[in-house]
Fold these 2 entries.
Entry 1:
Amino acid sequence: MAEHVCPVWVGYFLANPIRKLYHNPVKILSPYIKEGMEVMDIGSAMGFFSIPAAKMAGKNGKVVCVDLQKEMLEKLEKRAHKAKVFERIELHNCSEKSLEIDQYKNQIDFAWAFAVLHEMPDVSNVFKEVNEVLKPNSKMLIAEPTGHVTNEAFESTLNAALKNNFKVIGEPEIRGSVSALLEKK
Ligand SMILES: C[S@@+](CC[C@H](N)C(=O)[O-])C[C@H]1O[C@@H](n2cnc3c(N)ncnc32)[C@H](O)[C@@H]1O
């Protein structure tokens, strides 16, 4: 696995329930996820956000969990079974160059990329691909860790979003993160 990609052992720390005290998934995602929605977690790892999202989306909703690393998704699968939400989860193992999500075109109600964009080699392509799967006027939340990502680097990420048919409609406050709420134009 490329050096810049989060190793699987870190995935265990990220999925630790104690993290909820710092990053509360319900507080962060509940303004955007409603019952019955089909949503997408980009760089889901072991599902720290995907599993609470599956609960928010309810039994008629779905969470598409996209990750480069099979091992992350395998662990997510086990965690989703344990949480009794696996039937609402779709695991999608992508490649480093592309999310390979064409099959979801115009289907997704909301997407998020938490602490992952700085690991991706072509952020512009990520925005292009996500824009295509979102329904018109749907939103995408992005958040990057301030420790790893400078304001300047985040500005350049936002520029890539603007060039790919998104507008910035907010800057939700998320601990230890620089963030933006985007809307598909
Ligand atoms: C730092 S972790 C963040 C995980 C999760 N979003 C969270 O906040 O708990 C980044 C995740 O993104 C995945 N990732 C890195 N590059 C990727 C790419 N090009 N496409 C899809 N996933 C990628 C890694 O495998 C890892 O699981």
Entry 2:
Amino acid sequence: MADTLIGAIDIGGTKIAVGIVTAQGQVLAHQSFSTQPEQGPQASVQRIAQALITLTNNQSANLSGIGIGATGPVNPFTGRFGAVEFLTGWQDYDIIAALTAACGVPAALENDADAYALGEWRWGAGRGASPFIVVTVGTGIGVSLITAGQVYRGVDGAHPEIGHHIIDPSGPPCTCGAHGCWESLASGPAMEDWAARQSPSLPRRTGAELCAAALTGEPSALAAVQRTARYLGLGIANLVTLYAPQVLALSGGIMRSSELFLPVILNTVQATCAYVPKEKTRILVLESDALAGLRGAAQVWLSRSDEPKIE
Ligand SMILES: [Zn+2]
């Protein structure tokens, strides 16, 4: 029997990657192009379909399905985009129906962070772990929770918003209306805002600039990094206490300087989490890998066929 082949689509705000992936997670062929959101989603679907046809032409088997990871919010069950900041004009667009019609094979959708986490669970650092948690620290804090190889679903299929669990109710206001949410204290912008407030006479520095300065031992940058690390550690310790994960993986922009943050995070987990076997939770930093998004999208398709239906 010929291999199962999966069409994998990774839709970002600036770039769309399309690939052909085997059931073993091998990316056989891929290409990418700019998203051009101003041309509308239908134009992108046509380009994706054309790319899939071109990439499949040289393969020995047809596609069994298509997995999509897309910058969110997206509804994985209706296939529709929510109010996506980077994709003007895509709101309410049903990408599953459009791709299924254009390619003649069924499709499944997750937001790109969950797709990435599914791929890491199947073939990467979280291979087979349950629960497996990926914390992405960037402009916000996104958390993907994978249990038994499936994305955790709340009521009505909802995605938990762990970046908005409150760490300090006297903390800064958050975009969600609450105060002291985890991402208002420990994301990249939270670190930049705090550093700017401490040194109002200096030019504002980006997270990457603060990390670089902290690595040279500059006291004000070091203070911003240490504060961020402490809040990251508190949130991660909460996740360890709540879910007792087998593997908790860290990803995202500021984790490129993970050596600045990881020791404090590990110490915080060590100092708390008394009632769970924290020594059995592996906390690690994900390596960046250009093809991880496509493998994740492929796993969206593979895992969806095993997922219990929500009635
Ligand atoms: Zn919030």
